[in-house]
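hey so i finally got around to running the thing on that chain from the lab meeting. sorry it took forever, my laptop kept dying and i had to restart like 3 times. anyway pasting the input first so we r on the same page abt which one it is
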Amino acid sequence: MTYGILRNGFDLQNGKRGVSMTAGDKSKREKIKENNSALHILVSKQTAVPAIICTVMILFLSGLYLRYAWNGYQEEASAQAIALANSVEAVMPQRHISRLSGSVEDLDKPEYEMMKENLTLLVEVTNPIRFAYLLAERSENIVILMDSESPESSDYSPPGQVYGEANDVFREPFQTNETILTKPITDRRGTWISVLVPVNDPTTGNVIAVFGVDYSASEWYAQIWKHMVPDIIIAISMLSLSFILLYAWIQHDANKMLSKQLAFDEALYHSAFDQAPIGVAIVNDKNFVYQSDFGHININPMFEQILGRTSYELTKINWPEITHPDDLQADLEKFEQFKKGEISGYSMEKRFIKPDGSCVWVNMTVSPLSGIPNKDSMHLCLIDDISVRKETEDLLRESERRQAVLLSHLPGLAYRCNYDPAWTMQFVSDGCLELTGYPSDSLINNKELSYNELISPEYRDALWNEWKRILALKKPFKYEYEITTATGERKWVIEMGQGIYNHAGEVEALEGIVLDISDRKEVENHLRYINDHDRWSGLYNRDYLEALLAKDAKQKKTSKRALIGINLSTVQLLTASYGFHYTQNLLKKAADTLSRYSTEKRMLFNTYENRFVFYVVNYKDKNELTNFSEVIAKTLKDLFVTERVGGGIGIIEIDRDNERNVDLLLRKLLIASERSINLFDKGFRACFYDIELEALVNREGFIRQELSEIAEDNECNELFLLYQPILNLKTNSICGFEALSRLKTEELGLVLPVEFIPIAEETQLIIPIGEKVLINAFRFLNKLKEQEYDSVSIAVNVSAIQLLRPNFTDRLFELIGEMHVNPKDIGIEITESVFASDYEVINNILSKLKSAGLHIAIDDFGTGYSSLAREKELNVNCLKIDKSFIDKLLEVDPDKAITDAIISMAHRLGHCVIAEGVEQEEQKQYLLAHGCDKIQGYLVGRPLEEDAAMELLSKQLSFNNDCYGKPC
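ok and heres what got predicted. didnt touch it at all, straight out
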């Protein structure tokens, strides 16, 4: 029957190992060997622990026995050696030993000779003893009294020789008066075991010497091993017997396990045959075998279920009758080859017809049954129902057809690839050719090149790392990068895909699509370029710099970093004279020039239309920044030499304290560059933003706050006026005062105009503050009139910002009317530089003021931007010569001074002349001699408060009817 042939390689009917199911199939026999090996492994695992424990116990007991025997023989040998040494010491004449001094003099003593002879005789007659000697203590040293060696021997020691190799063991008998046996001791002669016996004085009982004998350690242990031979034989016999018993026990357990395994195999076969997921049947030629030959069912339930027929029904028909006609011919051809022995078996997919006429697809395997007498025509038939799979394959083919249609029209590259660094492709769509220039089959399994070779090198690591990150999260993948096509063209692509995972969550493959986004990237890059660059200069702009500084601050870079700002705001002053495009071209030229110094460590930015910034990294020290700034300064100075304009260079080092607030960092850089402009005027010099400058900035901030409060508070006393007298040289009398603004706070004390006026102009606070100055000056003018000083005038400084205010003239005339002051007693002083900003507009405003009766004076004449050609066109009444020209009257030969030329020129233009900063009488006389009209300075009087100014006027003996600003 089938049962007897198929079960695990054993034939229960014949009581011997059966043949395998397929003739000549050696794999079955290998299977049996594997099962037997598995059985032995199982047995060994179950008996391993007890066997190991028994083995360890046997070895331990054997070792314990041998150790016990060894110790016994060792103790016996030690006792014999000690007994021998004590016996020898007992017969030694102690009185002779006590007479030995332990020196060479002992050689002549008869006691020495007698004892020497006895020691020599002892060594000769007692074979185990190799050396005998007497030791004594002399001056805390152990010395040799005598030994058993002949004087001719190299080991001989004369009396009194210090025993240099003696250790604490040799001193112990002297101290304890007890005999000791030493452990093996190695010296220059070899390794020895010594017995040391104290020799006592018969009268006092004190230890006078130590008698010692040496045994060779090797001979000592050799004697013990001789005694151990019977014990070793006994131990080996015990071990052999124990291992034989242990082996018998293991074999017994193995036989028990084998019996259990046989019973298990029997039950396993029944379960496997009846519950097998495939159909199994024995077939005789073309007929199914039921049970007539073997007595058991030879068609399992699954075979019946697949074909839809019972075993009994199957025996009534042959298999060609229920085979689908389309599959029958192929089946019969292979079956004929099988019967003739041309093939050992075959497999094929075919259809069987069920009783209801439906078909079932099966995967059928036919193989011979050998080892059964007179049954050569019988064979084994295995079938597996694959109807569902076939249906799925049909659906899959349809899906693949649709997918092929989709992929053929897809504008890109669809793929399936291995998850490896080369991105080895399993499938690539036809769109590969259009995208990369390579046919799709050239990438399959890296036939001609790998997809990794198409990826631009700078993106390869990033792409791999991004896939690793996404796959760990099991999320969809999306990434943009560049590839290089077959023609060498670089294209931007976007890859969208996802991982394919097995049941264990491991990545099996990657699937996705790669699309060309070069056109979109070109637009994005163009927009990004516009966003990150200045349109006119082509340099990176402020937004890009701020983003870069914020990024570096977030990354916490440890390298040195600094900003160098170039402020060319003074170039804008040329716009009024030469036009907008002229100044823009100058700035473009400056940008191109500075770009030559831009490197990876010094990036250049155009942060504003007239400001540039170098971002310097990895520099050595502050000196390197200074030296680079000097190079930039020289370059810009040469560039703007014909325009006669300067600029500022500010430097700020970036550290942990200021790197976070990028806006504040750039503001401080601007402050440093503006400070450079204020300090060095038309030159280009670097100014570091340091503690001093920060203190100065803080001071300016406080001044700005004070000015703001003053502008809002009408009753504020921090801002007040001082009045510096002006002397008419012709009448030698005070004809007017210049109103000078002063600021005094509790925090800063007195603040001069040169410090707070620029701040007021910068913040536009000069407008409300300037009005307060005019009101206070007009109020003082009214006090003068009340005291009948009708010929005294007041001059007030007005900035360009005030003049250019649309309602300045209207508001000034309104104040004049409200306070009832005479316009002819009011002077307006402006600096020469205001004409450089908007000449025509300002000159027209001055014309209105002059027409209304006010007197207009140009302050600090000779230091500004006006030219002689335009001087005649100015709507002014008076020129105030700058103090620098007056100071030179004391430094150079008066005949070489140009002050007289300025006075003469002003008179020819119809202007009155006032000299500022007159401090010496010599200067006054020079000015008087050359026709100067008026002077002011410390020689005439310092700036005074109102009461002091009134007192000065009261002391005047005479007054000139001519007033300030009238034709002289």
